[in-house]
Amino acid sequence: MTVTAIVGAQWGDEGKGKVVDYLAQEADLVIRYNGGDNAGHTIVNDLGTFKLRLTPSGIFNPAVTCLIGPGVVVSPATLLAELADLDSRGVSTKGLLVSERAHVVMPYHLLLDQLQERSRGEAPQGTTGRGIAPAYADKASRVGLRIGDLLDGDFLRRQLREVAEWHDPVLVTRAAAPLDVPSLARQCLEWGEALRPRIADTLPVVRRALRDGQRVVLEGQLGALRDLDWGIYPYSTSSTTLAGGASAGAGVPPHRVDRVVGVAKAYTTAVGAGPVPAELADDVGELLREAGREYGTATGRARRCGWFDAVATRFAAELNGVDELALTKLDVLDGLPRLRICVAYRAGNRLLDSVPTARALEHVAPVYEELPGWQRPTAGARDLAALPDEALAYIRRIQALVGVPVRLIGTGAHRRDTIHRRDAAAPFERGCRPAWGRHLREGAETAEGLRG
């Protein structure tokens, strides 16, 4: 039995959907454990191209049971539309269940989200406006609605009246209409009826899978640099994106998670505001954006692009206890004559080997190491032998800097465009302990030296 947590090792949009879809072909149970419909996963396989916001990426294996766990905030309208689209395209959704404990993203959450972002004026946080933060805030304030509540009309009306007392003063102050409780209750009951066959206590399903030794994949949203506690707060999401949060958000005891896969692109992308030290505001950044089709799955927003940030990825690997990396979109770097990797941050006369708070991160400069690029394509490669020597050297250097072996390599959008190193392959993984020395100046020869 293996319980594998899939986590983002950068700012999000790393390609977790492709990795989950790939690993789900050998899984029994896939559980989405955090976030909402504010970010999406793009999946390309033999069935076509799909953009998922809430449905677990294991849905394309009809033998897999897919759960939306209690750590997720669910927009019923988004979920129902997504399931209808999948069904219309011949993808069976019979195996999808939604935890009765997952919280509901209500229409007033979207309104509150947009009003809050508007009030920030010239210092927006880059929210998607999909109500995720207000939904989690209501959850923490104990005035939220849960998916199971959509089946209980009396409870719904009582709870919505309390919600109105909570939110109406803010809405009226900001020139918005107060909540229409009867209309909201009717909408909730409609959603409840539509979702009734899928609403369940998911814990027995998880417990049975663990007892029977099934293969379980835990699917996360966004990346470590957007985590509520450890990310670039306040430019963060409103849930934990880390492997530790997977246990609570899915209902799996922490000690049962025996494999953590960190997903990182072969370069850096980010959507939304906040510091991204390796970002490129030049022709190379634009080239990466266009070659990688770097536009948000859920929002369509252009992503900020830059060189691979080994400091941020190592930070994410340490926080998550990453056992192995899945490095995606290697092919996007094809043809670049020279590549750079951010190996440290310079803050005044100090060099940093870890990610400070966002307030401090805004003032650092990246320290780069340069490597040769490769001049023949890697797109579609499915074996290490098909990669140019320079691409192998690039991957080895990432391994050495992050301190984690690369076991999956993405060479295209399609599921089959994947190199999977199932064996330990010792010669390839030699030097996986972080090697900081050869790029540093001013006598800082080790990671310990950087901390000074």
Characterization of the model:
With 452 residues, the protein is α/β, with parallel strands linked by helices. It folds into 2 domains: 3-55 and 211-450, Alpha-Beta Complex (Adenylosuccinate Synthetase, Chain A, domain 3); 103-196, Adenylosuccinate Synthetase, subunit A, domain 2. 32% of the residues lie in helices and 20% in strands. The protein is built from 14 helices and 20 strands. The chain has helices at residues 16-23, 76-88, 107-119, 132-141, 153-173, 181-195, 203-211, 243-250, 283-291, 310-320, 358-361, 389-402, 426-429, 447-450; strands at residues 3-8, 29-32, 41-45, 48-52, 65-68, 73-74, 96-99, 103-104, 199-200, 216-223, 259-265, 268-270, 304-306, 308-309, 324-328, 338-347, 350-352, 365-372, 406-410, 418-420. The strands form 5 sheets. Strands 9-7-5-2-10-1-11-15-19-20 form a 10-stranded mixed β-sheet, sandwiched between helices. Strands 14, 16, 17 and 18 form a 4-stranded mixed β-sheet that branches. A two-stranded antiparallel sheet has the order 3-4. A hairpin with a 7-residue loop joins strand 19 (406-410) and strand 20. The model is unreliable at 435-452 (pLDDT under 50).
List keywords for this structure.
Adenylosuccinate Synthetase, Chain A, domain 3; 4-stranded mixed β-sheet; disordered C terminus; 14 helices; 452 residues; alpha/beta; Adenylosuccinate Synthetase, subunit A, domain 2
